[in-house]
Amino acid sequence: MRPGVIVGVLSLVAFAALGVVVRDDPSGLDTWLGTALHGDWRGPAGGVAEVVSAILGPVIPVLFALGLVVAAVAAWRRGDRQRATLMLRVLVLLGLCRATSWLAKPLFERERPRVYPDFAYPSGHVVSVASAGFAAVVLCAWLAPHLVRTMTWIVAAATVVCAASRVVLDVHWLTDTVGAVLAVTGVGLLAGAALRLLPAQRPGVASST
Questions:
Q1: Alpha helices in the chain (DSSP H)
Q2: Residue 190, helix vs strand vs coil
Q3: Residue 203: is the preceding peptide bond cis (ω within 30°)?
Q4: Can you give the pTM of this predicted structure?
Q5: Which residue in 143, 148, 166, 169 sits closest to 44, CA to CA?
Q6: Measured between alpha carbons, how far is 117 from 64 in angstroms, rounded to an integer?
Q7: 89-110 burial by CB neighbour count: b if 16+ within 10 A, else e?
């Protein structure tokens, strides 16, 4: 079994276990942060977090998906079927990663720190950013391997900033954001292997067949 598949399975197991543990009553770091930040979402910090959440959230994977579709169509029209197929496979990967929050929220039914629509676990915003980021890293691994490390750092930073904004806004517990990263990592690695996206083949798209 490939290491990536093993890590993917372990990530999903950890995601499910964490969800079961935290689904009822918050405790530990969740409670401490909730108490420390209580009411801050009404102040300047909350205003900044609101802007961050508007930028780093569900809109990111939607825009990325549109970009992948446009790139796939353009490649197909040029006769580059391999690149077009790659774009579509990454699109499927993105969709599967993003679906984790839609599918998991009703399973765990965790309440938010304050009254807010929908369930808490995992954070949909963090899932959105992490999903787009995971797909972007995979795409870089195929088309621009020299950018993988830089893209990974960008994705990690964006995910942390997004997670922090949701906690500051008091609409998610910290463990909701951790669960989001675990879910995307697990689904991303397993789906990536199934779609023959991981490990990336080099050189370029030509070796995908």
A1: 3-22, 29-36, 44-55, 59-77, 81-108, 124-143, 148-168, 174-194
A2: helix
A3: yes
A4: 0.94
A5: 169
A6: 25
A7: bbbebbebbbebbeebbeebeb
Asked: is 3-208 a CATH 2.40.128 domain? The reply is no
The size of the chain, in residues, is 209
Residue whose pair of structure tokens reads 């009703």 in the numeric block: 106
Residues 131-176 have pLDDT tens digits of: 999 999 999 999 999 999 999 999 999 999 999 999 999 999 999 9
Task: In whole angstroms, give the CA distance from residue 56 to residue 176.
Answer: 16
Residue 61, Cβ neighbours under 10 Å: how many? 21
**Is there a contact between 128 and 94 (Cβ–Cβ < 8 Å)?**
no
Residue spans of the domains in the chain: they are 3-208
How far is residue 140's CA from residue 150's CA, in Å, rounded to a whole number?
Answer: 10
Q: How far apart are CA 22 and CA 185, in angstroms?
A: 19
State both tokens at 37.
Answer: 């930040």
